[in-house]
Amino acid sequence: MPASTYAANAILNHFLRGVIAVSPARLYVSLHTADPGNAGTSEVAAAAWPAYTRLDAAQGGAVETGFTAAAGKACTNAKELLYAPHDGAAPVTVTHFAIWTDPLGGEMVFKVPSPRRRHSIPPMSASSMPPTSISR
Length: 136
Fold this sequence. Notes:
Residues 115-136 are annotated as: Disordered. The chain is mainly β. The protein has one domain (5-129). It is 10% helix and 22% strand. The chain has 1 helix and 8 strands, in the order αββββββββ. The strands form 3 sheets. A 4-stranded antiparallel beta sheet has the order 2-1-5-6. It has a two-stranded antiparallel sheet with strand order 3-8. Strand 5 (96-100) and strand 6 form a beta hairpin. It is globular and about 50 Å long. It starts with a helix and ends in a 7-residue tail after the last strand.
């Protein structure tokens, strides 16, 4: 899972300078139509999918229940993430996911390509990510 500049700086400061990285109270998963880069761009637009929102990875539970413990430099989502049905007029193609500190803004922490590479979601379809879909 490639770290964002925000996460990389927090990790470097934590290990090299002893500055404790503060864990976010919640983590949210977003869908992107292209590589979000370090700025978190290309998130699904409300104009294309009006009901779309980022999802709480822990689904209201303790933040640590949203992802598995890291092993082998990787972890995965621990819960199924079910997005609201796509209520736009045209298909939306998802190529990446990202993990954020806030449901609307905040800092992007990590990004990962979709395991299906280019996942097209037609109108009136729901999109879900079973456990282990977000992996790196």
